[in-house]
C-alpha cells in the first residue's frame, strides 16, 4: 500500500499540480516529483529517506495552500486590477478565479491538498489502516493494482528503448542527442552480445540527464523575459516555449521525455537486479535471489549460464527466429540495396559494397556475424552524423548551405523534419541487428533441442509428390541457369565500350567450355561488381554534373569505357542478375548444405517450407546440385556423399 501511495499516487498529483501553471510554486512540485521517482525503488526499504522526502512536501503543501488561499481572500475582498497582471504574482504562482468554467486556482488547491493528505497518510495512517484494509475491498483492490504493476514493469522494459528513441528523434537538438546516441550504442551492444540489458546501456546517466533536461525545460517556461543572449543559447541547446501554437514535434518530445523518466524510474530496480543476476557467479544465494517477475527476461541454459536472450523465450519468439533466419537475410540485402539507390551517396555506396562482398565471398555465419557488427556500427554512425548535421544546419545555414551538393554527395541531407529519416535509418540498423540476434538464437536452439544427424537415414519415404516437385524444379533450374547466364552475358557484351568487350571474352569462354572453373566464375562476379560500382558512382549528382561540362576529358574516357549518359535501370538490373546467377553457381551448394543442416536441427520448420523440407529430408537438392568437384567437399561432412547418391537414385527411379 505504501509503495502504491508514494510511488504512484503522490508523483501523479505533484506532476499534475506542476503542469497547471508555469510558476515557482509549481517548479517546486516538479522537483519533488523528480526526487520521489528517482528514489521510488528504495522508499520501501529506507524509512528515513522516505521521511526526508515526505516532510518537505507536507510543509511546502501547507505553505502553498495558505498563501494561495490568503491571496484569493484578499483579491475577493478588495479586488485590484493591477495585482493579477503583476509579473511577480505570475512568477510566484498566485492565481485568481477569472471564470468558473476553468477555475485553475481551485484545481491547484484541491490537487495540492490531496498531495498533502497522501503524504500524511503514508507517514501516520499506513500502520493504522494496513490491518483494517488487508481483508477489505480496498485491500483486494490494492493487491490487484500491484499485480498489474508487475505486468506493467515488464511492458515498460519492452517499450522503454522505443520511448528513448522517440525522445531522441522527435525534436532533434543538442539536448536530445545523448538519448539518440544511447539508443545506437544499446542496439550495437544488444546485437553483439544478445543481451537484452544491452539496450539499456548508460541508463543511469540517461535518467539523471532526463531529470536535468525536464528541469531546464520547465524553467524556460517561467513567465520571465530572458535576455536575447540567453534565448539564443536556449534555442541552440534545444529548449523551447510550449504554447497553443507549438509544433507537434516539440509536444511529442516533451511528453516522451516525461514518460521516459517515469518508466525508467519504475524499472530501475528491475534493471539493477537483472544486471546483478546475470553478472553474478553461480551460488545458492544468487539462485534464491532470482525473482519470479524476471523469469520473462532471464533464462538459464543447460550449461547453467543465465542470459536475457528474449528470442529464446516461448514458441512465438522461436518461430520468429527460424522464419527470420530463413527469409530475413535476403530481405536485408534487398533493403540495403534499395536504401543505396534511394539515397545515392558515398555513404550509401558503403552499404552497396557490403552487398557486393556478400555476393562475391559468401562468408560463413561466424564471419558474417562480425561483418554485420561492423555494418551496424557504420549505419548508426551515419545516422548520428545525419543527426548532428541537421542540428548544426539550423544555426550554420549560411555556411553549410553553400556546399550542400558536397554534403549530399557524402550522404548528409537536411530535412525540415529529420525525425522520419532518422527513424528509417535506425530501422535499417535494427534489421541488421536482428540478423545477428536470430543467428545466435537459431544456433542455441539447434544445440539445445535439435535432432541428431543420424535422423536423416531414419526418414521414411513420405510425401513423394512433394519430393518429385522439388526435384523437378531443382533439375530445371540447374539446366536452365547456364542458358540464362549466356543470354545475360550476351546482352551486356553487345553494347559498345571496352568494358563490354571484356564481357564478350567471358561469353566466348562460357560458350566453348564444357565446365566452368570456380576461379572463372569469381572473376566474372568481380567484373560485374566493378561494372555495377562504376554505374552507381556515375549516378551521384555531383559526379554526373562534373562530367557533363563541355570539353571534359573524363567524359570522353567514360564514353570510351561504355558508360553512356542514358544508362537506365535496366543496365543495373542486367549486371545484378548476372552476378546473382554466378553467385548461385559458385556458392549455391555450400549455402544449401549448411542451411539444410540447420533446418533439420530446428524445433519447427519455417512457414511455407514443408515442400523444400521434404526435398532436404531425401537430399534431393543436394543430389541435383552435386557434381564431381562438389562431392569432394561433401566428404568433409559427417554423413558423407553416400546419402546424396541414395537420394539421386530414388529420384531417378521415381522419374
Automatic annotation (TrEMBL):
GO CC entries: membrane
Higher taxonomy: Eukaryota, Viridiplantae, Streptophyta, Embryophyta, Tracheophyta
UniProt name for this protein: Piezo-type mechanosensitive ion channel homolog domain-containing protein
- PANTHER family per the record? PIEZO-TYPE MECHANOSENSITIVE ION CHANNEL COMPONENT
Tell me the keywords, alphabetical order: Membrane, Transmembrane, Transmembrane helix
The Piezo-type mechanosensitive ion channel homolog domain covers 469-598
Q: Which InterPro entries match?
A: Piezo, PIEZO_dom
Q: Can you name the source organism?
A: Vicia faba
Where, by residue number, does the polypeptide cross the bilayer?
Answer: 20-40, 52-77, 104-125, 310-329, 341-362, 374-395, 415-438, 483-511, 523-543
> Per UniProt, what is one GO molecular function of this protein?
monoatomic cation channel activity
The yes or no answer to whether the keyword Zinc-finger is present is: no
Which biological process annotations from GO are given for this protein? cellular response to mechanical stimulus; detection of mechanical stimulus; regulation of membrane potential
